[in-house]
Amino acid sequence: xxxxxxxxxxxxxxxxxxxxxxxxxxxxxxxxxxxxxxxxxxxxxxxxxxxxxxxxxxxxxxxxxxxxxxxxxxxxxxxxxxxxxxxxxxxxxxxxxxxxxxxxxxxxxxxxxxxxxxxxxxxxxxxxxxxxxxxxxxxxxxxxxxxxxxxxxxxxxxxxxxxxxxxxxxxxxxxxxxxxxxxxxx
Length: 186
Ligand SMILES: [Fe+2]
Known about the structure:
two-stranded antiparallel sheet; alpha+beta; binds fe (ii) ion; 186 residues
């Protein structure tokens, strides 16, 4: 699957992240959160170039050590190909334009004790039509104009439809491999 990587701005550079709810982070869009729906996203990282998906991992492996008590926690998975099938041509066109600003991960923002840091305008969709890549930041995405905002809303609706079809309830000892470029998790 490639070379395991860690990021100094995420869990001190550890390659294995213990993802557990953290006090104070309950309502954040991050791996510290627990009381809000984690929006559909790809995992990205802060970079001085202000492009946050240039060195992010190709794959993520979620290994469940301990599930939630009531077995209600689910990981939703939306493949970019499935999303493209339910979106109209106009929306797909807009999503391929560099019209979206992505927020740097909230763990990074926390580290520098600052306001949200926004990327340069980038596209949400890229790559070949038949095997598109998709990128949405977890910590916030904004369209640079009304058309881009409308496309984002359409994408969110599509994620809800596609993601629910692929809901995974992980049990202890089970692992889920996520393609971090071709699909989004929530
Ligand atoms: Fe994630």
